[in-house]
Amino acid sequence: MLQGLMMDRPLLVSGILEHAARAYPESTVVSANAAGERSRYTFREIHARVHQLAHALIRLGVKPGDRVGTIAFNSNRHLELYYALAGIGAVCHTINPRLFPEQISWIANHAEDSILFFDTVLTAQVATLAPSLAKGTRFVAMADGPLPSDAPEGTLDYETLIAAEKDSGLFDWPEFSENTACALCYTSGTTGNPKGVLYSHRSQILHALSKMLALLKMFGSDKRILAVVPLFHVNAWGLPYSCFLTGTSMVLPGSRLDGASVFGLMDDEGVTTNFGVPTVWGMLMEEIRKQGRKPATLEHGLIGGAALTMPLLKAMEEFGIRAVQGWGMTETSPVSTTTTADIINGPANANPRKLRQGVPTWTTELKLVDENGKRLPHDGVSRGDLLIRCPYVTSGYYNDAKGTAAAFDEEGWFRTGDVSVIHPTGEMEIVDRSKDLIKSGGEWISSLELESAALSCPGVTAAAAIAVFHPKWSERPLLCVVKAAGAEVSADDVRTSIASRMAKWQVPEDVVFIDALPMTATGKISKLTLRERFKDFYASA
Q1: Residues 428 and 524 reside in one and the same domain
Q2: What is the CATH number of the domain that holds 453?
Q3: Does residue 4 sit within a domain?
Q4: What's the CATH code of the domain at 170?
Q5: Burial 228-248, CB ≥16 within 10 A → b, else e
Q6: Residues contacting 337, CB < 8 A, separation 6+
Q7: What confidence tier does 154 reach under pLDDT thresholds 50, 70, 90?
Q8: Is residue 96 in a domain?
Q9: CATH code for position 417
């Protein structure tokens, strides 16, 4: 093939930072700490701090390819680590602080983290973890004041490291292959040990560009995005890169994600878009109802991590907030499908397409297959296992040959574990997770459809459907429901609501009411916990 005559320049994360400082020096990063105090930096100032941090990392002995862990919430310091570590050729390994201690130590040791940066609000947790980490692991506290007295012995101070490099000048970013690793994130490990996904500079830049193209109206130097989605969760859905590429100001909420705190931050800082999981959106909508208004400048809300429900959609649109869905996984960087602009801006509540997970982003390909691996049509009816391929989908798990072998089909497509339909109009719609489908008497029942039907019942604020062993039908659905505050709703009310939407044999025999649904460390409903709790519910049926 005839080759083009173009310069071969690598796509590197350090280039995003340099572009941001040149093109959008006055865009800002607002960072809130645990006390609710806010710091404010321009992109120009963040650029300078990242260069100082890069010098400090080299002085600490960090080498290309080294994994450096973070246990921290959303702050300017955490964001600075993204750029400084990637820029010197090291790997920023973000760890979810809400995981069990055994999981955190397993992840840090599997990744072979040499240094652990941590928020001081997590000092006690880190001190407890320290003995289980590899010998020689060093610690750096991202402190707003003096180092905590209970920090691990020898802990260094982030700001002291930065200040020591104030006269070092600009760091000379090295050049290397764009396929070099820049970030590492582990899956939540609901079955077996967590699995590591190792992102490259190229994959993260392509992902950022693809997301920006899909969500053009949310980005720009006149926009301000609140990143409720954690920096420790799949690179905050690519926001650190997309915002710096477009001059979009960032607001980082720290650890305070209650409805009142998020509302106040949005209102004070002129936030135009919020990225977050439905759990946080639910708390925010409660505060919005209490206030009787939305935050003054809020235009859009992107929901990911779990499906947008009709009650949440209605609540958002009632207050003039345009709801957008994004779907993806740790393995897909993550955003791989989004709601399109024509649907986002369509008539309020009038379009069922708003509840679908959206169309593939640029470069993303999807396919559906049956249980034998045969391709299924994209007709909006055929349900099958969803597979994906794309330049920013993992090609294998980090140091996990067994997990890698099971994750791909013979054509190299990644198995998502979702059961879906794809509509002729292009939207993908999740029907269920394959492990959450309920097979009763040889017939499949969708837990998502049951939950959606239950949420249409007045007085129901949350619902989760699980498969429970049944002596006659092998499995039957059991619905776990949380009532709205002060609501009077019975099991028969819920079952009647479901019966109006689904076949009689799909309606659960029973409904259990619980105070709250158990949640995973990433803010999703822990059906594993519910299945264990109610595993014998139908045993005597």
Answers
A1: no
A2: 3.30.300.30
A3: no
A4: 3.40.50.12780
A5: bbbbbbbbbbbbbbbbbbbbb
A6: 325, 326, 327, 328, 357, 358, 359, 360, 361, 364, 366, 427, 428
A7: very high
A8: yes
A9: 2.30.38.10
Domain that holds residue 397: 362-433
Type of residue at 11: L
Instruction: Tell me whether the omega of the peptide bond preceding residue 146 falls within 30 degrees of 0, making it cis.
Output: no
Sheet-wide strand order for 67-71: 156-157, 138-142, 115-119, 67-71, 91-94, 181-186, 196-200
Cα 318-322-327 angle, rounded to 5 deg: 125
Catalytic site includes residue 187: yes
C-alpha 25/C-alpha 48 separation (Å) is 11
- Position 115 pLDDT exceeds 70: yes
Q: Which of 73, 111, 120 is nearest to 93 (CA)?
A: 111
Task: Reply yes or no on whether the pLDDT at 191 is more than 70.
Answer: no
Catalytic one among 18, 178, 287, 331? 331
- Residue of 63, 290, 314, 439 marked catalytic: 439
How does the average pLDDT of the chain come out, rounded?
94
Same domain for 39 and 87, yes or no, is: yes
Question: How many Cα atoms occupy the beta-carbon half-sphere of 241 within 13 Å?
Answer: 29
Res 236 pLDDT > 90? yes
Same domain, 444 and 427: no
Active-site residue, selected from the candidate residues 102, 290, 444, 496: 444
Residue 330 domain-assigned (yes or no):
no
296-306: per-residue pLDDT in tens? 999 999 999 87
C-alpha span between 420 and 430 (Å, rounded):
4
- Please name which of 357, 381, 346, 343 lies closest in space to residue 308, comparing C-alpha atoms: 357
For this structure, is 444 an active site residue? yes
Q: Are residues 111 and 185 in the same domain?
A: yes
Q: CA 531 from chain center: how many Å?
A: 24
Q: Are residues 409 and 468 in the same domain?
A: no
Among 99, 113, 334, 144, smallest CA distance to 234 is for: 334
Q: Please count the structural domains in the chain.
A: 3
Query: Could you confirm whether 439 is annotated as catalytic?
Result: yes
Final residue belonging to a domain, choices 197, 228, 256:
256
* Residue where one domain finishes, among candidates 418, 433, 448: 433
Asked whether residue 236 is assigned to any structural domain, the reply reads: yes
Among 175, 177, 178, residue whose Cα is nearest residue 203: 178
**Active-site residue among 28, 187, 330, 416?**
187
